[in-house]
Amino acid sequence: MTAPPHQAITFRLATTEDAPVVARMLLSLFLHCKRAASDPFIRNHTPRSVEELEAWAGRHVDSERDILLVAEVYGAVIGFVKGHISDPYLVSSLAPQIGHIGMLWVDPSHREHGIASQLLAQIETVFRERGMRFVDVAYLVGNEDAEHFWPEHGYELYRKFAVKELASV
Q1: Which of 45, 132, 140, 151 would staple 99 via disulfide (CB 3.0–4.6 Å)?
Q2: Is 89 helix (H, G, I), strand (E, B) or coil?
């Protein structure tokens, strides 16, 4: 069932009861990233089970530092955004803490209705309410959806990461 644009979509903090559906979405996100990008950590890793992802989701429901929000239609979870609060990279930073968005996913059958943008607005509100002045996001090179979405929502590139795999000792 695809949600038409006028349909009421609700947003809320996730609970442990949401862990199974969030885990299935995490697996879909993981497989999407594996196809769409060249991240060596994703390319060389496959979750052992949906139960592993379910346990992860259950550990990341709202806490002092973790934020997991879900979008739902008629009581069915159709998307999520995961964020956390972290210390800044530099000791003499402009901000004592930074909000970080780690994952955002909307079920493909519910896309093109602005749900991802609404999830983003919701988590930005939570970060603002918790005193964050800055929010950052890391997305994978080659993930074209992300490369369009984040700049459209005001996120600017400011740092690049590089990785090198070291030979075994």
Answers
A1: 132
A2: coil
